[in-house]
Amino acid sequence: MSKLLIVGTVAFDAIETPFGKTDKILGGAATYIGLSAANFNIDSAVVSIVGEDFPDSYLELLKKNNINIDGVEIVKGGKTFFWSGRYHNDLNTRDTLETQLNVLSDFQPLVPKDYKNAEYVMLGNLHPLVQLSVLDQIEDPKLVVLDTMNFWMDNTLEDLKKVIERVDVITINDEEARQLSGEHSLVKAARKIEEMGPKYVVIKKGEHGALLFRGDQIFFAPALPLEEVFDPTGAGDTFAGGFIGYLAYTNDVTFENMKSAIIYGSNLASFCVEKFGTERMQKLDRKQVNERLAEFRKLTQYQTHID
Amino acid sequence: MSKLLIVGTVAFDAIETPFGKTDKILGGAATYIGLSAANFNIDSAVVSIVGEDFPDSYLELLKKNNINIDGVEIVKGGKTFFWSGRYHNDLNTRDTLETQLNVLSDFQPLVPKDYKNAEYVMLGNLHPLVQLSVLDQIEDPKLVVLDTMNFWMDNTLEDLKKVIERVDVITINDEEARQLSGEHSLVKAARKIEEMGPKYVVIKKGEHGALLFRGDQIFFAPALPLEEVFDPTGAGDTFAGGFIGYLAYTNDVTFENMKSAIIYGSNLASFCVEKFGTERMQKLDRKQVNERLAEFRKLTQYQTHID
């Protein structure tokens, strides 16, 4: 059984959408990635940090999903990372209302001994130096996937570049790909980013799907057209978790298999956005997931001969 | 051989993009639709109107592409419809700089006798009353496709609704679908628009592809990721021309075949945007078209079993 090591935030979120608002609820990149990857029969562990205010029930939830949390440090007297944001009416854009780094500001990640030999490593969105520290602790991974965002490009670009140099796959959104590369065309952007290190570039376009690039090869997976998007929080992390979870489960990192991984990631993300926070991801069953995979297939596969 | 009747503008365009600008060049919805549909072995005709200033060479170009122009009225002393616009840097949005209706303001379309029995009818984007007049002149079409835009929704909504009521397929862009339906979700928007008349709704999302809806069935075709988009003018019309041209050529209006038609339309549109105006569409050969169809296939088709 493949081991998947996930580093990222485990946090409190408070979310406002046009449909309602939440108090502090469970959030964080590593949480979404972990819950998404938990849909596969793999051995995963999260490296993160929380404060003493973090409810046991949330940690239990991760454990119940077979996620090892030995690497989640609980800081006595500390407060958990907190983010709050408000989505605009189209749900494509949001304003950050508040960010409290709290215990995250001094986070020194410690990879549990049993996971130093993890074959699959997911560097969730956080400070590049934390991501680098995790890379320095792992032995000989088969595949390292990096997720990041414009905040680190704006503020810690040199550190971020050192991470990018060392990963196999990078997942970023279209605007971030343009920022990082200085190219408007996503085809050109992906090529420039490949030159920075990663063999594979995944560009996330939200409701418009995701593109996978490797050299001249391109694969595209749409997002499932949904009647309602309720809360987009965590969709990107859920996508990444499904992507690497599927790769770890199949233990196959070919381009061909990555196509399926992209579809799997998109599929799981389509559930994530149906409820606030992680709520929907806590109640997924295999039958629902498979039904929607069939919908994905119908959405893009054509049998007729048109050439 | 199926007959395809196209009504729409045959016009002058002057275009500015970040890459350059043109003087008055050949443009117009019917022109793009006709040149795109000309990639199929069908019998097509254009109903339109131009002024005495319209060059013979442009009319010859249409004829050379086997497009019957008996229905193109040439108004002695009249001036041809003229549009000029400037694209923004991202090429997704544009400002109209000038619109001169000229001969178009008194256009009374006359369908040539030989095409009153056309099986396929493409109502290109122009005044809904002109579209209605064409519908009144044709006998018993197998498929009528309507293209329209927000301008008619803003200014002549009641007339437009009368057209929508009578067509089989409507093609509009995502923002227009939202405006017409009052729904933000494209799934809900398509359902509401179906209730207005069309059995099929095609929602164009530009660089993000196109969606085909019929009841609960959805098919999605991506746009081909391109290194450069040079000039988006006419891309939507080229898409529509490829869509109905393929349907007319195969004479098969099932949902399954419409999937291929959508791919064909997207494929031809991907060529259109590579040069200014109609330039690229004048020099297409079958081999290029087929090579790119294979690229489309690679872009979205996956063989692995993922359920």
From TrEMBL, chains A, B:
Gene Ontology CC entries for this record: cytosol
Keyword Kinase: yes
UniProt superkingdom: Bacteria
All copies of domain Carbohydrate kinase PfkB, residue ranges: 20-280
InterPro entries according to UniProt: Carboh/pur_kinase_PfkB_CS, PfkB_dom, Ribokinase-like
Keyword tags: Kinase, Transferase
Family matches, as PROSITE patterns: PFKB_KINASES_2 (PS00584)
Protein name: Sugar kinase
Alphabetical list of SUPFAM superfamilies matching this protein: Ribokinase-like
Pfam families listed in its UniProt record: PfkB (PF00294)
Listed GO MF terms: kinase activity
